[in-house]
Structure formats: C-alpha cells, structure tokens
Design brief:
The complex is a heterotetramer, with two copies of chain A and two copies of chain B. Chain A is an alpha+beta fold. Chain A is built from eleven helices and ten strands. Chain A has a four-stranded mixed β-sheet. In chain A, strands 2-3-7-6 form a four-stranded antiparallel β-sheet, with helices on one face. Chain A is globular. By secondary structure, chain B is α+β, with helices and mostly antiparallel strands. Chain B folds into three domains: 2-122, Orthogonal Bundle (Butyryl-Coa Dehydrogenase, subunit A, domain 1); 124-229, Butyryl-CoA Dehydrogenase, subunit A, domain 2; 233-378, Butyryl-CoA Dehydrogenase, subunit A, domain 3 (Up-down Bundle). Helix content of chain B is 49%, strand content 15%. Chain B has eleven helices and ten strands. In chain B, the strands form three sheets. In chain B, strands 1-4-5-8 form a four-stranded mixed β-sheet, covered by helices on one side. A four-stranded antiparallel β-sheet of chain B has the order 2-3-7-6, covered by helices on one side. In chain B, a hairpin with a 2-residue loop joins strand 2 and strand 3. The chains are: A alpha+beta, B alpha+beta.
C-alpha cells in the first residue's frame, strides 16, 4: 500500500534536509532544556511544513493527508519524541480543531499565524481526576452576558506551558456528562491561566503542563463550534489523532531498528559482529516483519481516512498495535546494545523512554481495547 | 477498505463459492474428517465449477482470472473449519501444478493441466525428505538418466495429496554432485512401478492424506522433466513465494472464522449470570486479536497485490507467512479458551481448528526458516531475483 | 526445595517400573479405545499405589503427601494425559472426598475396595450450564422420608462412564446458591443414571462423561458429610486438586523437554544436529529455566500444604502458572520436531493435545486469576 | 512458607534494616538521585550498623551471619525505588570484596576488608571493557609484571561505584597469550597515578556512579594480586554465581515493591466512577504478576539455600538471574501502565523504577549470556566445578 506520490517524496526530502540542518544539531540541548525554542516554529512555518492540509485562504497549503503523515514520520525519526509531540500537538491537534470546528472569524484570526509558526497552540482536555474519562471533566465554563468564565484544571497538556493559545474543553452544562462539554479558544495572555511544567520520564524536549484556570474570562466568539458539542468534536477527531500517533510510533520503531542494525554490524563479541548471532538475527527478523506489517496496515487506514471512510475502529486498532509494538521494539533494541543501551550517550536510551508514553497518551491501550471491544463484540457504531 | 482490492465481480464470485461450499462441503466435512479423505467426486464438482483453474489459462480449461479471485477462493475454503479440506486445492492449484504451467513443456501441460483443473487428477509437490526437512538443497532422492527415462530412488515424506492422488511433482537430484545446480523437477505418476506409500497419522488435517513415499528404481520418462535439468532449485524458490502467500491468506482467513465462531458462542454462553462476552478480560482479548487479525489481513492483501503486479517479493511473502501462521496459533489457543470445557470437545469446531492450525508454523517452511530468510534480507542486505 | 526422602525414591522407582511394564506397552491401544481396562486398577491397587495417604484401617497406607505427588508425576510422564487423569480422578478426587468428609460407615464400605483398585470412583460437579460457576448448579436432591431423589445432569466428568461409584454435587436447597449444595455417593448400579462418553481433543484414554440423573434414589446414609455443606467441602479440596494439576503439568512439561532434547541431539538439519542452533538452544534454556522455577515453587507449596498451612492462594497460583507453562512448553517442543511434531507417531503430538486441557479443567486460568485477584487486591481470605 | 527460610532473628533483622532505611534513606533518595550520588556519610552509617559486613568474618569487622541475612538486606534495599542506591552495597559486599576474602592474601584482607565493611572505602569490580562486553575471556587490559609491581594498561567501562569509589578489583591479563589461563585479579587504588575516569550518563540508576576507566601505565604493587596469577577467570566464575543470585534477589524484591505500590495507587485512583482496582482486566494482570513474582521469589530462595549450603549452583543461579530480571522488566512495564499518565511523570516512583529495572537483563551478564550458559548445561550436559 503506497500512499505517496512523487511530490510527497519531494516534500519528505525537503523536510528531512531541514530537520538535519535546523533541528538535529540542537536537539540534545533542547532535550536538556525541556523545551524547543520559539524560533524553530517560524522556521518551520516559513518552509510550509505546517498547515499542509489547511485551506490556502487561512494560510495553509491545501494539500492532502499524506503530507501530514510525512510530517509525523520525519519528526519521529530524529530521536526526540518531545520534539515530534510539540509539532504534532500544534499541527494535528490544536490547528485541526480550529480548522474543522472553529468559526470563520476565529480561523481568520488564528490560522494564518499558526501556519506560519508565528503562533502555536495546544489542546487541553485531560484533567487530573478524569484521565481517559473525558465525559467526567470538571472544568466549568459559565456563560454570562459578556462571555464565558472558565474555572478548573488540566494536566498532561503538550505545549501547555509555552503555546500562544489553548483549545480548552470545559463544561457549559455541569449537570451533563458528555452532552455538556464545549470547546473554547483561550489566548495565553488572558489573566487567570497558570501553567507549570511536568517532569517526565521522556518526551523531554516537549513542555507538558499542568494548567489551572481561575475566573478566566473569554468573549462569546471564542467558543469553538456550538455549545455542548465539544465531546462530539473530540470523538470525531480522535480517529485522526490516533492515526497520527500510530504513524509516529512505527516511524520511530523503524528508526530504532535501522539504528540498531547499524550498531550490530559494527559491534563485535566473541570474535564476530553481533549481527551474526542467530538469536539476535531471528529477533530482528521478527521485529522487521511486525513493523512492515504494521506500517502497511497504517498506510491502508491513512488512505481510507483520506478517502473519507469511517475509520474509527481501524484507527483505534492502529494506535493500539503500533504503540504496543513500538514499546517492544525499543525494549528489544536496547537489549541489542548491551551496556551501551543503558547509556544516554546512545540514542536508544532516549527512544526507549520516549516510546513508553505511546500506550498511555491519546487514550491508553486499555481504552483502545474497550472501544474496539464495543465495536467488534457489541456491534456499536461510532 | 476491501474496495482497494476487490471489485463487484470479485464480491459476486465470493458469494458464489460461499454458496457452493455451504451446500456441497459444510454438511459433509464432519464425515470426511472421520473417513480421512475428501471424496474424489467432490473435487470433480469443484473442478466443474472452475474453482481449480482460476489462475490457469483458458486453453487448459482454466478461467485466467486475476489473483484476487484466488485469494477469495483460499479465504473461503479456509473458513470451513477443516485445514485438511482446504489444503487439497491449495496444493493442487497453487503449490504443485504451477510448476508445470510456468516451466513445463507443452506436452506436459496438455497431459496434466486439463485433468488437474477439472478435478479428475490430484497433484502433489514432493520436496521434504526424512533426512532433510526444510533443507531443499540437501535432498537425497536421485533421478539418474538412463536413455529415454530417469531411474528414481529415494524417499519423501509429509507429502500432501499423495496417498490418494495421481501424480507428483518430485524434487530430485539429477546430478548428485552439483548441489543446488543438480536439482530438477520431475512429474511422477503415483501408480508407476516402484512407488510405494504409507499414509501418515496426523495431529490434525484429518481429511487430508499425507504420505511417506518410497521410490525403488522407479522409471520415469525423460519427457516428464519440468523445464531444464539442474534448474529445479530455482523454479522452487520462485514457486515457494506463492506457496507462502497462499499459506498466509489461509492463516488469516482461518483466524477470522475462529473469531466469528467465538463471538457467536460468547454471545450465547452464560456464566455467573451474564453472557460471557460481557467479561472485560475476554472483551479485551477479543479486541486485541481482532486488531491483530485485521492488520495481518491487510498486510497480506498488500503482498497479494504486489504478487499480482508481478513483483518478486520474497521478503514480504516470508513475513506474511511467518506472522500469519504464528497469529493463527495464538488465535487458536485463545479462542479455544473462550469455549472452556466445550473447547476441548471434538463436537465443537474449535478443537479441530486448534489441531489444524498447529501445522501452520511448520509446513511450507517453518517459522525458523522464515526468520532465517528475512534475517538475511534485512540484516545482510541479500536480495533474491526470479529464476 | 526437596520434599522427597529415601523411601519416596524407592516408591517412585517401583511405580516407574510398574508403569513401564504394565502400562506403557498398552497405552497406545488404550488411547485408541478411549478407556483403560478394569484390570489395571486392581494391579495398581495390589501394588499399594492407590490410597497412599489414606489410613490403614480403611485399606490405605497412611503415608504422607509426597507419595501422592509421585503418583501424579510418574503417571504424567508416560504420555497419556487421559491415563493420568483417570488415576488422579479416582485417587485424588473421589477417594479424597470420601475420606475427608464421608461417614465412617461410608468409608468402611467404599475405601478398602477403592484402595485395592477393585472399585473406582469419579467426582461429578460441573454442569452444562454452570461450568466454573459451581454455585449455580441445578441438579437437585429432594429429601424424602426414605432417602434422596436426584435429578439433573453433569458434564466433563472424568471416569464418569466406567467408574463404580460417583460423588455427586446436588442442591438440597434450590433456593440457595452455594449454601444449598450437598454431596452424595451414588452407586453406578442404581437405576436412573445415564452416562455417555464425550469425544475430546485429547485425554483420549480417559472416559469423560456427560451424565444424566432421572429420579435416582439413594438412602440417607449416602449423603457425604452434612447437608448444604457441599460447596464448602469442594472449596476446601480445591487447593489439593489444583496442586495436583500443577504437579502433573510440570511433570509432563519436563518429560516433553527431555524427549525433545533427545530428538534434537539426533536430528540433523543443514549439516548439524539441531540442538546446535542458537535460537533453539536459547529457547530450550528459557523453557528449562521456567520449568525448574515452577517445579521448585510447586514443591514449596506441597511442603506447606503437607505442613497444614492455608495455601489456597498459592495453589491457585501454582495451577495457573504451571498449566500455562505446560501449554507453552508443548507448543514450542512440537515446533522443535518440525513436520514430525505433527505426526501422531511421535509422542509430542499427543502431549500437545493432552496439555491443552490444563488451563481449562479444574477451574480455568480466568477463574484462577479471579480468585487470586480477590486475595491479592481485595485481601479476601479463604 | 517464609518460615522455611527465615527464623525469628531473621525477621527482627528485617525489621531493623527496614526502620533504618525508612529513617535514613527514604527521605533523601529523591535528593540523591538528583545529585547523582549517595553521600559517603550515609554509607559510613550503613557500615556502622554492620550492614556491609553481614557475610564477612568477625576478625575483619563483619558479623559472620548466614546468607539469609544478606538476602534480607538485598531485598530491603531493593524496595527503596532506587536501583542506583541499592547497587552500591550489592557491589561492595557481594560482587567485589568477596574475591579478596576468598582468594586474597591475609595482608590484602587486612588492608581492604575492615575499611570496606565500615563503609569507609568503596569498592568496584572492573570486568567489562569497551571492546569485550560480557566476554571476560577476551579482555584486553594488560598487567605486565616488572619487578615488584605490575604495569597496567587498558580500559574498562560500565564500572559501578568506581567514579566516587576507592579501589577496584580489576580483571586483567597478566599473560596475554594464555587465554583464560592468563587472567588475574588485581586490586587497584583509584587514586593511583595513571588512572583516569569519566562518569557515564545513564538511563537510570541515577544516584549510582558508573565509570569508564583508563589505565595508562598504572603501577600496582605485586602484593595486590589476588590469589594466584592466571587464576582470575576461575575465581570470577565462582564469584559470578553470587553476583547473579544477588541480582535475582534484588529483582524479585523490586517487583514486590512495584506491585505493592501499584496496588496502593489503584485502590485510590478512580476512573469511570470506580476505583481502578475493580476493572477486571487490571485485576487479572495483577493476579498473573503476583503469581509470577511469588514463584520467582521462592525459586530464588531455594537457590539461596543451595548457595548457603555450599553448593556450586551455576545453572540455578543463572536461571534465577535470567527469570528474575526478565520478570522485572515486564512488571515495570505493566505497573507503569496502571498509573496512566501519572506513570510517565517523574514525581511518581514508577517512572524511576521503570528506568532502573531496565539494566537488569543487561548488567552482570545479559539474558542472552545466561541462556548460553544454561543451554550448555541443559543441552550439552556441560558441568562446572568450583575453582
């Protein structure tokens, strides 16, 4: 299943060159600093790497989905899960919500700068006491004559500390579960928003925030879409989000495998290069096969997604299996490196740490299985 | 997503073979399993429907259809809960007679293909030997040329379709000194003098006949040589890709049927006051398996497409075979578990599925052999070209 | 953890010799016939292999638990799960219930012949609609002035067709769940008992029955222990039953591994014996390690059981892990044999079929995990 | 069942060390992890309590207790959620100084053991080299005798305790031509001229110092040789059994603490309206892991008992190390999952446990090396005797 045409390959090459030149030399620093510099956003934007699928009238390139796939893949192959998360959190989450559900006015106001990387966003749904249970969020948005007043807290928010605007899920009707949720756009500069960075096992170059909102006032026009439709919007976008996560996981896995193969061809033990040991060879064969399979499946779903099919079930499956596989690949690849695998000087230690979020973020594996079970066993349709 | 691979005619074909199997095969499989064979009359009907000639030219009685018709055929026969039933046409049309079609003389084609396609003759491919297993290069069966015929001596084992079959495509050494270059393919009639067989007693595949064969000074006409002397190994390498692909298709299709069957059972079976498809641990296992089967299926379709387009995809076919058959083992083990004690009873089809699947990671090249091949390509950068 | 003394070894040697002489030569026939001959029972009894832990006054040998362990182990190493099941179903199930909970009169009446193998029994608890859910059985025992009248059906009963007597669980109080169950001894000869043999994937030498009871009348004295205490008795004996199953599973695994090692030292491929291939060697190393671990654990529990400790949790763990391991061992060992593994002429095919019941019979793995979860998470005590 | 291994005094000892750790270590570990070392002052207190000399004779300041006291020590330090903290005393008392005790001269013992036992000096064992890894036979570091001293050249890597430590037990080649018979053990003071070190930056074990060491014409007095020249390999083989056993004990103890910690969290954390320890899929995973940890623990106790009784149990120790550390990887992965997003946060101890456990299947001989050893014994019937 090949979803890429010639122009896609050109885009990939340009992006790859850019990353090698502008990102890779600095990525270790950004990892230690726990954030990526503002300047990289505008460089990214200038090159046309952001907003590829967004209409030109809003500053995007109006291209098809494979461009976004390539953005995800290539940012996943420079050994910084955090960097990739920051880019994807802006491009495939914040911007996509705005683009799909926002009013023309909001789009005109925020998308062009977003596409140029002069401004970037985050999506804030998860709360400390709700986790994967979106329907149970407690952040409230009280409607007044002048606008909405938002109170509550969020956690695990990628780009949550540094982003210029936030897409926030809050309850406009506290008596409802899912039916009372709405989405809002918050400018970072409004008073009442507090953010603190979390200290994570991996994804170090990404800022992940705990947020609190205290009487944050926003005008009515900053409601995204319709009131009480937020849950529906979130569910609708989950397919894309999961597909992107699946693609990233497999790109990183492939990168880890290639990196390992290179190491194994050079490293010697007991008198021969370790890629000659049968037990290691068979494990490589198994992993390579599983990656190949998963990649093919993911591309098939990308195509179906791009063709407008309902792929809720398929995206959950892709996310579940790709992230589980990625953990397995990283665990095994680290083992190939022996003691060196445990040293942060080699890339595999970071890959191992970064991968571990895969089966947790964007809905845990358990949530994926719940969802798939409902569709496969109870024949529920979404 | 199926639309990426199948058009409307394909779907009609699927319906027709499904109807045929439902009427002609499903009611009898239990009995055939007991008898240890599927009757010849059935295969003739099957042949009359054209099902044994989907991938053969019309001049030999085939239908000359694209490969996805074959994929449908293999899927559907693999969903009958009888690996032994499904394997006969798989060997016949995809693992043995294609050697005659692709490399044989016109005379050989005329002699064997029409009857095979009509279901009047049953073919086997005889590679494995008691001493060699998956190691085709080290076979010991010799075919020494003497005038207008070869004299064959040696033995073969695990040969599907052979005991009740009509002819063998036998892998033999025509030049015992020449290694891979000394291997040739020879068509041998089962009734030839000096051929003796023993039917093997297997863990599963009960309605399929698997034979151990001895060749004792068997005279085979020289014109029964397929293609050129010494080229057998290379013909095989090509043919094995198709064999693996067919095995991969059968594997995921079997998994799909086992999952469906389990879902049905689980919706009806109650324990502790509710139907067992409500238990979270079982639901999550179903979710996991459904996901793995689905991904496996579309990867295999992708390989089929590459095959159809004429690509020589050793790596992908080996991967599909490896992953599909390993998955089938896992699915068989887990699905049987869902049935509890009933899973262990032969009255339910899961027990048979469990027995039948277990050959998957062994036959047609073990998982270990697949990993060897993949490792060579992925690690050492080895490439294979078509013969 | 060694639980065996010198005299245990002597017993083991005697039993092993006996099995080699009297059982092994005929076992393939018995497997095809689907049953073992009556004559083997009395031979077994004559040798003193049955009722080892039962008091001499009831015809037993009054020995300690390791003798029963040895009986389980050795019968599990002759490649007939069905044979072992028949012996254990009599010795560790039917007889043990009778011995532990039966009246003196019942014991005097039935145990001596049971120890001599002149008569053998079965335990009938499971029902078609209840499975592992013992509390929900529907077989009823209606008390009348003359005795009890039993109606209902049972399934998956080892020795259920041929045994001379049956220990049957039935509801004396239909309004209760677990609190309404009692145990009864039924002579095979009473009218109203119908038995038909089931056709199984493995355990072929054992007769496994579906039973039906139609107005089966038994005298009051054939109640085992007290009325409505049956569930409690069953739960109490589960520890032993599971331990025995765990021991059998590991003995069979060890036997399969040894058998495979022998084959692999002789079988050649690609010019060398297949026990030289690194991937197979490492798998053997892994399996051998897991078997060794599990055996040590099981023996530790045997000792604790014999010392009178409460080992409900430990026995469930032993059963869960031993039977899961056995399946894994058989699956992998069959693979070592390549095509020969699939032929019934080699022992491994049958071992593979026989093992598969392990995670199902005597409480499925799922039931074990339920039970363990209750003890480990909810701190429930049994 | 614990009573089969531990008597009442053992239990009192366990309580005392637990109290000590709770008071002196647990409140500070977070800080030590940040600083990248555990302060020397702590180890001196630890030594004063006798915890570094449980397995040493009284004449050197040890307590000469049976091995199960050591087992308790290792279990308890392994339950502090800091692999880096636990490894220092493990290396000190069980992986390095025992070579001096068992094979060293009385002068060496007097010089090094009392200080090590008192926590005044910290020891390392230096085996691995950049080019050799687990392959001790192929080390390249040379110690060439010249008069009354050896001149050492070469390098070592992954050496725990070395960067802030005092002396090394270095594995060197005194006879570069002699293979295994050319290997010797040498005590080298870290401050010797020509010794240079680089501190390594690790995935986990953050409060432990791990060094890469270079020896550049380092002069080492001849009396620092442990035992006889050329016997180093055999001493090592013996010592490695203890090392593996200690690793196995640490592994299951870590698993126990991770499971307990998870159970605590799961009883408090709510999702979809109930505490997450009520979800069947999580409950079954807990049940499975609890079972595996329990079996692993008693198997390891069994090996400890064999060790205590003086048996030379290469196979059992290798098995315990293999299975224990593989299990720890699995437990770490699964337990972190129970914590959801919080598992990924360094504020919870699971993230550290996950990072720290990952070295288990690598350090002290990889799982692959363990399987090699076990395979040789189980398949080829090889046996090992004590040096």
């Amino acid at each position: 299943m090949n979803i890429f045409r010639e122009e896609h390959h050109l885009f990939r090459t340009a992006l790859r060159d850019f990353l090698q030149r502008e990102v890779v030399p600095y990525i270790d620093d950004w990892e230690s600093e726990g954030q990526i510099p503002r300047s990289i956003w505008s460089k990214f934007g200038n090159m046309g790497f952001l907003g590829t699928t967004i209409a030109p009238k809003y500053g995007g390139s109006g291209l098809d989905f494979p461009y976004q796939v390539i953005l995800t893949e290539e940012t996943s192959k420079i050994n910084s899960g955090g960097f990739s998360a920051a880019v994807v959190g802006h491009d495939a989450l914040a911007m996509v919500y705005l683009n799909k559900f926002g009013s023309t006015r909001l789009k005109e106001q925020f998308l062009p700068a977003s596409c140029m990387g002069q401004s970037f966003g985050c999506l804030a749904v998860t709360e400390p006491h709700a986790g994967s249970d979106v329907a149970s969020i407690r952040t409230s948005a009280k409607k007044t004559a002048q606008g909405y007043v938002i109170n509550g807290s969020k956690t695990f928010i990628t780009n949550g500390v540094l982003s210029d605007y936030l897409i926030v899920a809050a309850k406009t009707d506290l008596d409802q579960q899912s039916a009372g949720i709405s989405l809002f756009l918050l400018n970072r500069t409004i008073p009442g928003i507090q953010a603190s960075a979390l200290n994570k096992l991996g994804w170090k170059a990404s800022d992940t925030a705990e947020l609190s909102f205290q009487d944050v006032f926003i005008p009515h026009e900053h409601l995204i879409g319709e009131e009480n439709m937020g849950f529906y919007y979130i569910m609708q976008n989950f397919a894309l989000e999961r597909l992107i996560l699946a693609i990233g996981a497999i790109a990183a896995s492939q990168y880890a495998l290639e990196y390992s193969l290179q190491y194994m061809s050079q490293r010697k033990a007991f008198g021969r290069s370790i890629n000659k040991f049968q037990v290691l060879r068979h494990r490589i064969a198994q992993l390579a096969s599983q990656i190949e399979l998963q990649k093919t499946y993911n591309y098939t779903i990308c195509k179906a997604f791009d063709d407008g099919h309902n792929v809720v079930q398929q995206c959950a499956m892709a996310k579940l299996m790709s992230t589980e596989l990625s953990d397995k690949v990283m665990t095994e690849c680290l083992q190939f490196f022996g003691g060196y695998g445990y040293m942060e000087d080699y890339k595999i230690a970071r890959m191992f740490r970064d991968s571990r979020l895969g089966t947790i973020g964007g809905g845990t594996s358990e949530i994926m299985r719940e969802l798939i079970a409902k569709m496969v066993i109870d024949k529920v349709k979404y | 997503m199926d639309a990426y691979y199948f058009n409307e005619e394909h779907q009609l074909f699927r319906q027709s073979i499904r109807d045929f199997l439902k009427k002609e095969a499903l009611p009898n499989i239990e009995q055939w399993e007991k008898e240890g064979r599927t009757p010849r009359a059935f295969w003739q009907k099957f042949g009359e429907m054209g099902y044994l000639g989907l991938n053969f030219p019309e001049k030999y009685g085939g239908l000359d259809l694209d490969f996805f018709y074959s994929v449908i055929l293999i899927e559907e026969i693999s969903k009958c809960f009888s690996g032994g039933f499904a394997i006969l046409p798989m060997v016949q049309s995809y693992m043995s007679t294609p050697y005659i079609l692709h490399h044989g003389s016109e005379a050989l084609k005329q002699k064997y293909l029409p009857d095979a396609i009509a279901g009047k003759k049953v073919a086997s491919i005889a590679i494995s030997e008691p001493g060699a297993g998956s190691d085709a290069m080290n076979i010991q069966t010799k075919a020494i040329k003497s005038g207008d015929h070869y004299v064959v001596n040696g033995s073969k084992t695990f040969i599907t379709n052979a005991y009740y079959g009509d002819f063998l495509i036998a892998v033999v050494k025509t030049d015992p000194e020449a290694g891979a270059n000394g291997i040739s393919l020879l068509v041998i009639d089962n009734k030839s003098e000096g051929v003796s067989m023993r039917k093997l007693n297997k863990l599963g595949w009960h309605c399929s006949d698997t034979a151990e064969i001895n060749f004792d000074d068997v005279k085979v006409p020289a014109e029964n040589l397929i293609g050129d002397e010494g080229m057998g190994f290379y013909y095989l390498m090509g043919g094995l890709q198709l064999e693996r692909l067919v095995a991969a298709v059968g594997a995921f299709a079997g998994c799909e049927s086992a999952l469906q069957y389990s879902l049905q059972y689980m919706s009806e079976r109650k324990a502790f006051g509710r139907s067992i498809n409500k238990f979270q641990v079982l639901r999550h296992r179903i979710a996991q398996m459904a996901s793995e089967i689905e991904a496996n299926k579309y990867f295999t379709y992708h390989c089929c497409k590459l095959h159809q387009e004429g690509a020589y995809v050793v790596k992908e076919c080996s991967m599909a075979k490896l992953l599909g058959t390993e998955l089938a083992n896992k699915v068989a083990t887990e699905c049987l578990q869902f049935f509890g004690g009933y899973g262990y009873m032969e009255d339910y089809k899961m027990a048979r599925f469990f027995r039948d699947s277990r050959i998957g990671t062994i036959g047609g090249g073990t998982s270990e052999v697949m990993r060897e091949i993949i490792a060579k390509m992925v690690i050492d950068g080895q490439e294979y070209d078509e013969a």
